[in-house]
Amino acid sequence: MKVRLYRNLKIRDKRAWSIMAQEGPKKGKVIDIVSGAVINNARFLVSEAGRQRVIREKSKNVHAFVEGTLVSSTPLDSAPRTRRAGLSPITYDPYRFSQFQRLDCNETIKTSPHVIIDDKGVAAEAGPCGVLQGLRGRRRGLKRGVARACSLTWDCGEVGR
After folding, report:
1. d(CA 96, CA 120)
2. CA pseudo-torsion sign 4, 100, 114, 121
3. Which of 11, 62, 93, 138 is a good FRET partner for 53, with 20 to 30 A between their CA atoms?
């Protein structure tokens, strides 16, 4: 089932996540509140208008989601049992970032094939830090044999092969 998950800030004693259906008869409605979930084919979505409202009013509102196919979820009253080995920790702070960020290398993340959400936060399967762009350097105006290494949030620099 395609769903959107977001952090539920109304439940203060535990880290809780609300699951909103994106298809079926309950589309757009919260169908469960859980302590953890596993999502496949995930997209990290941020409403820029909602983010600007948070910055302007200095009051939190729901404007950032993880959307994808729900594989499993953990009830709110039990501890999630998930394996996070090999996954990158993900964060989002509307005052510092306009998109979700990988904590291991400060890069924007927009999609992931596998995401785990639990009491420790969000972790996603992601490629290596740094993205090589322009491998055909001559088409990008670079010298032959030079690629452009770009972090999605930092300046690009030339890297020799």
Report:
1. 20
2. negative
3. 11
CA distances from 18 to 53, 59, 65, 78 (A): 21, 19, 10, 15
Length of the chain: 161
Name which of 104, 94, 102 is nearest 46 in CA terms.
94
* Residuewise pLDDT in 10s, the chain (161 residues): 999 999 988 887 678 999 999 999 999 999 999 989 999 999 999 999 999 999 999 998 999 999 999 999 888 777 656 667 789 999 999 999 999 999 999 899 999 999 999 888 899 998 888 753 333 333 344 344 433 333 333 333 333 33
